[in-house]
Amino acid sequence: MSMQHQFLRILDELKFTEIGGNKLIYSDIRIVAAGNQLFKYLIEKNRFCKELFYRFAVKISVPNLKVRSEDTDFFINKFMKEKSKELRKRDIDIETEAKNLIKNHSWDGNVRQLRNFVYQTVTYVKPMSNGRHIISSDLVKMLLADEIGFGNETAFDNDYTWATAQKNARKAAIERAIEDSSSDKEAIAMLKIAERSFYYWKDEFNIK
Q1: SS3 16
Q2: Residues 6+ apart with CB under 8 A from 120
Q3: What pLDDT, in 10s, does the model give residues 158-203?
Q4: Please, what sign has the CA dihedral across residues 197, 67, 71, 36?
Q5: Domains of the chain as residue ranges with CATH
Q6: How far is the C-alpha of 23 from the C-alpha of 26, rounded, in Å?
Q7: What is the CA radius of gyration of the chain?
Q8: Is the pTM of this model over 0.85?
């Protein structure tokens, strides 16, 4: 936060002093900045300076990939082609249902996260169930591990059913909301679920 206030001062006055120096340096600059988090949330948590946020004259909001489904389709094809070429793998394709799973996934890391996931999928296409044809059942476990951060076998215990995937996703979402909030009321608002459902699942998962 202290660095943000210093940066705000530079933007306002267009002058600064070098470290160890005492001479003011004037600068005619234009700042182009980008972030991949919700600044309103960061401001509320006192992790981003409100004055600095409003100092930027033009603010452009780029919807995430879940909203821009047509862009997601383009990127999936692009990244599959790139990784296939790099690994010298031919005739790799993906069924429509599998592609829809990827398109409907919440990519918090936006394009970079999607790229890494597609690269991983293409890399491990050989051991998948249908040769070089990527199908939806191959992706369920990978998508949930990517979203929740499990990255291990014990989270699913070789249970690939959709019910288990939903259960693990629900548990992780509640735990994250509680961790990032100061009260149950705030966590419920973040999750956008009924209070009754929140306490039911909290008790079901034995979350303290």
Answers
A1: strand
A2: 142
A3: 555 666 777 778 888 888 888 888 889 998 988 888 888 888 888 8
A4: negative
A5: 2-55 (no CATH), 64-139 (1.10.8.60)
A6: 10
A7: 22
A8: no
